[in-house]
Amino acid sequence: xxxxxSMDEIISNIPVKGEDAKDIAxxxxxxxxxxxxxxxxxxxxxxxxxxxxxxxxxxxxxDILKYSETLYSYSEYFxxxxxxxxxxxxxxxxxxxxxxxxxxxxxxxxxxxxVKSEYTYSTITEIFDxxxxxxxxxxxxxxxxxxxDEMLFDILVPTTLTIISPAPSTTNFLxxxxxxxxxxxxxxxxxxxxxxxxxTDFSAFEITA
Length: 209
Prior knowledge:
By secondary structure, this protein is mostly helical. The protein has 12 helices and no strands. The chain has helices spanning 7-13, 19-27, 32-39, 42-57, 61-72, 78-96, 109-115, 121-137, 144-164, 168-173, 179-190, 193-199. Helix 1 (7-13) packs across helix 2 (19-27), helix 4 (42-57) runs antiparallel to helix 5 (61-72) and helix 5 (61-72) runs antiparallel to helix 9 (144-164). It is globular and about 40 Å long.
């Protein structure tokens, strides 16, 4: 078996120090070899920081386009993106459960504490399912941008419903909409023609004389 190290052991054995060392330890999965590699990979550090910004700032439908473009720019790190997002949401879950001592991203404890009220145990488990569904879909779908769009939408919707706490009648009404219809509705409001083209199945329309 590959030996796993504690965060403190990794921090004390890598050349990077300070807050960056804590972030690298959080991303290393307890693997000292991966930690050393991360010390030399500035793009991965940028990816991590962008994923952190996404998790803490994805609030509205117009944010999906912005963060999807950001993730797409790191397409070669596809699995790493999903792992980082999963780890951050796991830390939010630990905070919800009052298990802060289990949080891996130690430098983000304050931010995690600030956003945990926007989530429930149920919404976090839905997000885990969404991330894993995206991972499985990538085996048969090479359209990474489309996968990021759909994943972020699926992450945003249950979170938004948790924040706004809609009336029961509204909650019951939303499932009547298909995902594509709901996306089209939101993007008609923000006037994003590119998304309309992306999510509209034009073959479903029949033009008659």
